[in-house]
Specification:
4 helices, 28% helix
Amino acid sequence: SEVLSDLNVAHDFIIDQALTKPEMLKRFKTLIVANARCMSDEAVKAVKKFAQQGGTVYISFNAATADELGFDRQEWPFKGVFGWHIRTVKAPASGITEVSKRAIKQR
């Protein structure tokens, strides 16, 4: 916000619930979804619709990686919308037990 203000770019903040009101988003040409990790399914649908109707969306990598209650999503809901997706990779089991980890640290 500070950068936009310094550049004299008019901007506004909207809350998650306002995303689902079509009249609210009609006011904007661009939507910045920065670090909005927790988003409801309804808000995600609204952002997708905004983009599909020609609106410009800047989105951070962790946007909507959890629902509105903070539970992690199994799949990134914007997959396929913006031409990229997030892939999570789980590290393979190391076979090192807690005891052997402590022994390694002590060496």
